[in-house]
Write a structure and sequence with these properties.
By secondary structure, the chain is an alpha/beta fold. Helices cover 42% and strands 17% of the residues.
Length: 321
């Protein structure tokens, strides 16, 4: 048995295939595809539909959507299109559909993430909840013994302590929905000791105490931890770190968006990882995909959204009236 999180390589995409297998027990979720006006974003929706993950509702300029379908060589038979004039209108209409409970998820098409999220976070007509929204990358890393979640590398640029609390809780809730009962959360910094000169270490210490006081629930937290000590038991042992999280982290909380973005891209381009992504903390899941994502990553992102929606429904049914 390996003693740390790192181990012999797994087949690429094996964990995503497990996600897809888990999703097959549920019916597809009705999903608004926001401005799917290029071949890549439109194909992502069609692939997810064919896999039984979503029922797509295409929101954007009809003429551009039809042209994208022609370019992609795919049919739009029996797929509903809501014709709006431009990407901004598509974002507003998709968010309105979510607010009206006419769709169960949103999926980013050929528009900037900032444009979509501006409509999502709008105070008057958006999809806000009491929780701060945040993004989670769900990575399939060939040399790591289990799925790895990194947050937040796409939405919150320089999160403060309260925002980090919500970021962690969002990620823990996601892990629960994917069948991880007690996820281990490592709060990353450059060092393993608390230093008044390094805000990330102070935040990590405070977040651990917040978990002790049940301001964060459902997971096991430790930090500050450097990246090597978070994912390698051998590295943690060499530093004399005694921790139930070190070397076995499920979730990595990064200090800020820049650090997270660089970490994810290094894992993808140097370690052969695949990175599905989703935004949490809104009224419904928001699937964020990139033009660089392959089919398996796009499907995994949709499977995560589907599992979130369906398992939330199951949890709601179990709650006493």
């Amino acid at each position: 048995m390996p003693t740390g999180g790192t181990t012999a390589p797994f087949a690429a995409g094996s964990r995503y295939r497990q996600l897809l297998d888990a999703a097959r027990q549920y019916r597809p979720i009705r999903t608004a595809i926001v401005h799917p006006c290029d071949a890549v974003s439109l194909l992502g929706a069609i692939e997810a539909q064919a896999a039984g993950l979503i029922v797509p509702l295409l929101v954007g300029p009809r003429r551009k959507i039809v042209k994208a379908a022609e370019d992609a060589g795919c049919e739009l038979t029996n797929i509903e299109i809501i014709d709006v004039p431009h990407s901004h209108a598509a974002a507003e209409r998709a968010v309105a559909l979510g607010r009206e409970c006419k769709v169960e998820a949103l999926m980013k098409g050929a528009l900037h993430t900032d444009e979509l999220m501006a409509s999502v976070v709008d105070k008057a007509g958006g999809l806000r909840t009491e929780r701060r929204m945040s993004h989670v990358f769900a990575l399939d890393v060939p040399h790591y013994s289990k799925p790895l979640f990194i947050t937040d590398a796409a939405v919150n640029i320089t999160p403060d302590l309260d925002t980090k609390r919500d970021i962690i809780q969002n990620a823990i809730d996601l892990a629960h929905a994917l069948g991880i009962a007690a996820p281990k959360v490592a709060m990353l910094a450059a060092v393993e000791t608390v230093s008044a000169k390094m805000q990330s270490t102070l935040d990590a210490a405070a977040l651990c105490k917040m978990a002790d006081r049940r301001q964060i629930v459902g997971g096991l937290l430790d930090g500050p931890l450097a990246f090597d000590n978070a994912i390698s038991s051998e590295a943690a042992l060499s530093k004399g770190i005694v921790s139930a999280v070190a070397g076995q982290a499920d979730i990595l909380l990064v200090p800020d968006l820049e650090a997270g973005n660089m970490l994810v891209k290094q894992l993808v381009y140097l370690a052969g990882a695949q990175a599905a992504g989703i935004v949490l903390g809104a009224r419904l899941p928001i699937i964020l995909t990139s033009r660089a994502d392959g089919e398996q990553v796009r499907l995994a992102s949709c499977a995560i959204a589907q599992l979130l929606v369906r398992r939330r429904e199951g949890s709601a049914q179990l709650e006493p009236e």
